[in-house]
Amino acid sequence: MNIQGQAAIVTGGASGLGEATARELARLGAKVAVLDVNADLAKKVAADIGGVAVQCDITNAQSTQDALTQAAQAHGPARICMNIAGIGTAKRVVQKDGSAAPLEDFARVINVNLVGTYNVSRLFAAECAKLPPLEDGERGVMMFTASVAAFDGQVGQQAYSASKGGLVGMTLPMARDLAQHGIRVCTVAPGLFLTPLMKQLPEPVQQSLAASIPFPPRLGKPEEFAQLACHIITNTHLNGEVIRLDGALRMAPR
């Protein structure tokens, strides 16, 4: 699909990997809707790229439907959906005081990362399926954002790894399900990237993490994630695939 002139939705588009993707899409000529729970940050990014900011809680069906409607009113029906919103946590199953990890923490991560992504995707797909087909019968493309933790999660990452593993497992059946409508589905599983969250860590910790990456021995750049996301859009034969973007990193147990 040619990105130029297409309406695109980016969840989590106000910061980190989502912001980088929103900016790259706009640079390539897309009309970008920046969806995020943080309305102020979303407005800042949207203003910079000439897009529209929409506050959205992806775990809430009505909030998400309203956000997609608002985006469509601004830019027309979207053919591109970049699911990048997500959260993380680390909790050992048995805590230091001997108590069990809180169930609420596990459920929250699953709800945002996995259920939230499905929520956005189902609503996007239902509208995208109504659009006239483009070349090769394609109507749209969506991307999930998993993590290398889906494959080699570390100690304490049960919730995060399960949520990202769920996205990996959902990729192929979603692609098969939506093939009849000409909608492609791919997932990117990033490794260690220099996001705002990573920048909060002490510099020695950042350097240690970067040194664990075989090549290049540095943290990933959000722009590199964005470049891959946009390549998925333009390469019509990419479908049902999960792509690791990690510099050959394999996470240690801790």
UniProtKB/TrEMBL annotation:
GO molecular function: oxidoreductase activity
Keyword annotations: Oxidoreductase
One matching Pfam family: adh_short
Classification via InterPro entries: NAD(P)-bd_dom_sf, Sc_DH/Rdtase_CS, SDR_fam
Domain of life: Bacteria
Ion transport among keywords: no
Record family assignment: Belongs to the short-chain dehydrogenases/reductases (SDR) family.
Name recorded for this polypeptide: SDR family NAD(P)-dependent oxidoreductase
Species assigned in the record: Ramlibacter humi
